[in-house]
UniProtKB/TrEMBL annotation:
Keywords: Amino-acid biosynthesis, Histidine biosynthesis, Metal-binding, NAD, Oxidoreductase, Zinc. PANTHER family: HISTIDINOL DEHYDROGENASE, HISTIDINOL DEHYDROGENASE HDH. The lineage of its organism: Eukaryota, Fungi, Dikarya, Ascomycota, Pezizomycotina. It catalyses: L-histidinol + 2 NAD(+) + H2O = L-histidine + 2 NADH + 3 H(+). This is Histidinol dehydrogenase. It comes from Aspergillus sclerotialis.
Length: 442
């Protein structure tokens, strides 16, 4: 495959890449201190990291009502409309999951049930951007799945309650809302404190400390994904509009200074014009996030020209990007050509920002090529797929007993074999020596 780079990733080679803080070490200390000291430690870290120490971190119903009342009506209406989109898609996902039971042979019944997780924690970031949409994606999806109890945590913003985020969390169905941020929130939900119930599973994006906290706690609780920086990959042929390509690349580059924004195209002209358009957009005085987006584009942006559509699909699958936007003559070709992606956005009438904010599919998606082996957050992540089995026929139990005896002894599991032997003796009248001796000793 021939590749021509019209813009290469510069990376951070010109900067000091030595971590200024020991993120894993700090996170480890926070988790262990909260595990030991509970609410006292939560308050200490909230004061230290967020300058926030209210009488109670848990919001009362009157606090929630006040937050909703302080939101513009249009904001509340928009939250409800977006959440309806998310709900409809999540309900369709759940409907696709069926409990079943099958009789694989006479008297042998095998079944499967999808059981909701009991207790879930949802982390909704604040900081640079109050991510209302994360409330829809994590809390609402969990409630559609049937989760009994969902705790939502979000940090204060500049010492204030983020009213619109609280409204989104409440309307999504959170059973408890805590104004608590950072790794202290993640740790408190994961290990449990006097005032915060331990959860079984945690979902939601966050900064490096939040991500590291989830990584260290994985195994003690379940998590949605090991998240990295947001990614966008645009696939374009000669029919694509370079200004549209550029606008959509910049839309994701503003997420942070380390967002990969990549174009793979079969058209050198589209590639060159896209680079020019991105530079013009980032030089505009009316883009409030231009500085962040420019840093990301300069360090991690790429524009690659390939020879053919086959090469385009092949390279796209190697990237295994979180978001793949397809701006080609036949965008639905991606449904058969692509196998590695978090989510597809087909055609110029669609864009990644729709998926991030409003369209209804989940925006918690795999990054850093993990799309090669997993999809994103969905109703199924909140369900445990459990099996059961029942043998109702004496003949079937006896046959299985004989089979189990042979199969277990092939692996040197004698006690396993004897469980099978017992059924073979009981239902098939097999004369098994160890059973006779054992019964004689009783």
């Amino acid at each position: 495959m021939t590749r021509q780079y019209l813009k290469e990733r510069a990376g951070l080679s010109g900067q000091n890449t030595t971590p200024s803080v020991d993120v894993p070490g700090i996170v480890r200390d926070v988790i262990e201190t909260i595990r030991r000291d509970g609410d006292k430690a939560v308050r200490k870290y909230s004061e230290k990291f967020d300058k926030w120490s209210p009488q109670s971190f848990k919001l009362s119903q009157s606090d929630i009502d006040a937050a909703i009342a302080n939101c513009p009506k249009q904001t509340i209406d928009d939250i409800k409309e977006v959440q309806q989109n998310v709900r409809l898609f999540a309900e369709a996902q759940k409907a696709s999951l069926k409990d079943f039971e099958v009789e694989i042979k006479p008297g042998v019944h095998l079944g499967q049930k999808n059981i909701p997780i009991d207790h879930v924690g949802a982390y909704i970031p604040g900081g640079r951007y109050p991510l209302l949409a994360s409330a829809h994606m994590t809390i609402l999806t969990a409630k559609v799945a049937g989760v009994k109890h969902v705790i939502g945590c979000t940090p204060p913003i500049n010492g204030q309650i983020p009213n619109s985020t609280i409204a989104a969390m409440h309307l999504a169905g959170a059973d408890e809302i805590f104004l608590l941020g950072g790794v202290q929130a993640v740790a408190a939900m994961a290990v449990g404190t006097e005032s915060i119930q331990k959860v079984d599973f945690m979902a939601g994006p966050g900064n490096a400390f939040v991500a590291e906290g989830k990584r260290q706690l994985f195994g003690q609780i379940g998590i949605d994904l090991f998240a990295g920086p947001t990614e966008i990959l645009v696939l374009a042929d000669k029919t694509a509009d370079p200004f549209t390509v550029a606008t959509d690349l910049v839309s994701q580059a503003e997420h942070g200074p380390d967002t990969p924004a990549v174009l793979i195209t079969t058209s050198p002209e589209v590639g060159r014009k896209t680079v020019d358009a991105v530079n013009r957009l980032l030089g505009s005085s009316d883009l409030s996030t231009a500085a962040i987006a420019k840093t990301s584009w300069e360090a991690f942006g790429e524009v690659i020209v390939v020879d053919s559509m086959d090469d385009l699909w092949q390279l796209a699958n190697q990237y295994a990007s979180e978001h793949v936007q397809v701006l080609t003559r036949n965008p639905r070709d991606a449904l058969t050509k692509m196998t590695n992606y978090g989510a597809l956005f087909l055609g110029e009438k669609t864009c990644v920002s729709y998926g991030d904010k409003v369209i209804g599919t989940n925006h918690v998606l795999p990054t850093r090529t993990t799309a090669r082996y997993t999809g994103g957050l969905w109703v199924g992540k909140y369900l445990k797929t459990c099996t059961y089995q029942e043998v109702t026929s004496e003949q079937a139990s006896g046959d299985l007993g004989r089979l189990c005896g042979r199969a277990a002894r092939a692996e040197n599991f004698e006690a396993h074999a004897r469980s099978g032997d017992l059924r073979a003796a009981q239902y098939m009248k097999d004369n098994i020596e160890w059973i006779q001796k054992a019964k004689a000793r009783l």
